[in-house]
Amino acid sequence: MGITQLNFENINKVESAIAFLQEHEPPEGYYLAFSGGKDSVVIYDIAVKSGVKFDAHYCVSPIDPPQIYQFIRQNYPEVAWDYHARGWWQLVVKKGLPLRQARWCCQVIKEAGGKGRTVIVGNRSDEGTIRKHQKSFEAHKKYNKIFARPILTWSTGEVWEYIKTNQLPYCPLYDEGFKRLGCVLCPFNRDIKREIKYFPKIARNWRRACDHIVEKRLVSGKEYKYQFKTGQELWDWWIARK
């Protein structure tokens, strides 16, 4: 389709996204959630073009690729760095490894920011089943915040079209074959070998956390939930993603 193709209102997707932000602009301005990924690059540029008031924030993730840190520092120095996940590895030992069915990690790292604000996010419908049912403008079901999703209906191809057309910077990991960026060894990621190879330090921290989790259970006299006897057993099971 393409972002420049007109819809039934005779405006294209870029103009529609700009108008959307202008229409819903809160008096105090938006909180823009900036992750360093391709979608956040687009929503940042659209927010600038719309002329709305906003402040951009990166919720620092201890398990983000280091290339994301470098990219944000070099290209978006005005983005604020918010540290909501201090003591992350101790928390992993306490709560256990995040799983597809028990993904508590996002609440700690990403969802802590923007409370009490209208938050611009780069969610898109074609990224998964949950996002397919999201609305462009809606309140969070649990926290006191409202989400504004200006590019919800955009395809991946349209995101890249916008980036190339406007000559926007983007994280170099995309040029190395990564389709999506985010937390290393996220429970939803199945390209495990690639991530372990690219981000060995973070992978070692996850592996070390497995040892501490099992050791803690043994010391307390409680067996681990899945009855693993060693950290290696837990690690092997977790990265198998079965």
CATH H-level superfamily title of the largest domain: HUPs
Q: Assign a percent range to the helix content.
A: 40-55%
Number of helices: 10
Largest sheet: 6 strands, mixed
Task: Specify Rg, calculated over alpha carbons.
Answer: 20 Å
CATH topology of the largest domain: Rossmann fold
Give the domain tally. 2
Termini, distance in Å? 37 Å
Element-level helix/strand string: HEHEHEHHEHEEHHHH
Percent of sequence in beta strands: 5-15%
Give the name of the CATH architecture of the largest domain. 3-Layer(aba) Sandwich
- CATH class term of the largest domain: Alpha Beta
Given the C-alpha coordinates, what overall shape results? Answer: elongated
Overall average pLDDT: 91
- Residue stretches low in confidence (pLDDT < 50, at least 5 long) are none
Q: Could you tell me the number of beta strands? A: 6
Structural class: alpha/beta
Strand order of the largest sheet: 3-2-1-4-6-5
Keywords:
242 residues; alpha/beta; Rossmann fold; six-stranded mixed β-sheet; 10 helices; 6 strands; 9% strand; elongated
Give a description of the structure.
It is a single chain. About 40% of the residues lie in helices and about 10% in strands. It has about 240 residues and is of the alpha/beta class. The protein folds into two domains: about 160 residues, HUPs (Rossmann fold, 3-Layer(aba) Sandwich), CATH 3.40.50; about 50 residues. The protein has a six-stranded mixed sheet, with helices on one face. The chain is elongated.
